[in-house]
Amino acid sequence: MTVREPQPALVWTNHLDSLPPTVLILGGFLTAPPMYRPLVERLRARGAAGVVVANVWPPDWLIAGVRGVGPLTTRSGRALHDAWRLSREASRGAPLLVVGHSAGGIIARLLTAAEPFAGRRFGAAPLIGAIVSLGTPHRLAAGEGIGRRLSEVAAATADEAVPGAFFAPEIGYVSVASRAIRSDPTGHGRERAAGLLYRSVIGRAAVPGTEGDGLVPVAATHLAGARHVLLDHSIHGPGAGAPWYGTDDAVDAWWPAALESWRGALAYRAAMTTAADPAPPALPGTARV
C-alpha cells in the first residue's frame, strides 16, 4: 500500500517568482551528515527556505554493499518526508530541490521510481521539483572497482527504473562535474592517484589525460537530458582542505542553475494543473509488495 498525505492546497503556484525552495541533501558514499553543515549554511545564505540532510552514515553504505540499497533508500525516503513537511511551512508546500552529492545523486533518482525495487515502493517524483547531482557517477563501468560495486548496489537499478532525466520537464535535472584534476601516470601524486580512481569508475575509458574531480571523471557524470555544469577547481568531497562542490565559489556556480531548473519545473507543473484540483502527492513509502 502506498502512503499518502492529506491533499494540500497548491498555493505555491501563485508565488513562482519569489518562492524560496526547501532543500534536501542526500550525502555521498561513506559520508556523514555533519560533513554537510557548511553547505547547509551556504544554501541558507543564498535563499533556501530550509535544508534537511538525510540521516545516512558510513555504516549504512557498508550495509548496502551487503544487503542492497533498500534500507539506505528507506532512510533517504524518511528524510524526504521531513523535508516535504518543512516545505509546507517554509515553501508553501512546493516540491523540493534535492541536492545529491556523489552516489547521493543516484539515490535521488531511485526515490522517484514508481515501480517497486528491493521490496519498497517510493514514487516520490510529485514531491521533487529538481535533482541536482554533484560529482555523481551516473555512468559506470561494469568491470571492476568502485564503478562495478556502485553499479551493482544502485546505479543499474536507477538506469533501469528511471533512465536519464526521466521525469523532465516535471523535474529539473542538473549534473555538476569538475575537471580540477587531469590524470597523468607520470605526474604528481594526486594526478597518478586520479588515474587509478577514474579507471575504477569508468574502466578502460579512463585514459591518461582524463579530467575529473579526483574521484569521478567528467564523462561519468553525464546524465542524458540533464543540464550540465562544469567547474574548474572543485575536488570531489569535503574534508581535504581544498575547494569542493560545497564551497562558496562552486555553490555560486551551480546554485543559479539549480534554482532556474527548479523554478522551470514548477512553472511547467503550474501550467499543467490547477490549484482547485491537484493530484494528491504520494509520499515515499516502505511497504513491501
Features:
Rossmann fold; 6-stranded parallel sheet; alpha/beta; disordered N terminus
Question: Would you state the CATH class?
Answer: Alpha Beta
* Helix content class: 25-40%
Topology order in helix (H) and strand (E) letters: EHEHHEHEHEEHEEH
Number of individual domains: 1
Report strand %: 5-15%
- Strand arrangement within the widest β-sheet reads 2-1-3-4-5-8
Low-pLDDT ranges: 1-9, 285-289
**Full CATH superfamily name:** Alpha/Beta hydrolase fold, catalytic domain
Query: Would you count the extended β strands for me?
Result: 8
Shape: globular
CATH topology: Rossmann fold
- Could you give the distance between the termini? 8 Å
| Helix run count | 7
Level-2 CATH architecture: 3-Layer(aba) Sandwich
How would you sum up this structure, described in words?
This protein is an alpha/beta fold and 289 residues long. It has one domain (11-175, 220-232, 243-272): 3-Layer(aba) Sandwich (Rossmann fold), CATH 3.40.50. It is 36% helix and 13% strand. It contains seven helices and eight strands. The protein has helices at residues 37-45, 58-67, 70-90, 104-111, 145-161, 189-202, 248-272, and strands spanning 22-26, 50-53, 96-101, 128-134, 172-178, 181-182, 211-212, 227-231. Strands 2-1-3-4-5-8 form a six-stranded parallel beta sheet, sandwiched between helices. A two-stranded antiparallel ribbon has the order 6-7. β3, α4 and β4 form a beta-alpha-beta unit. It is globular.
Q: What is the element layout, followed by pairings?
A:
Blueprint: E1 22-26, H1 37-45, E2 50-53, H2 58-67, H3 70-90, E3 96-101, H4 104-111, E4 128-134, H5 145-161, E5 172-178, E6 181-182, H6 189-202, E7 211-212, E8 227-231, H7 248-272
Parallel strand pairs: 1-2, 1-3, 3-4, 4-5, 5-8
Antiparallel strand pairs: 6-7
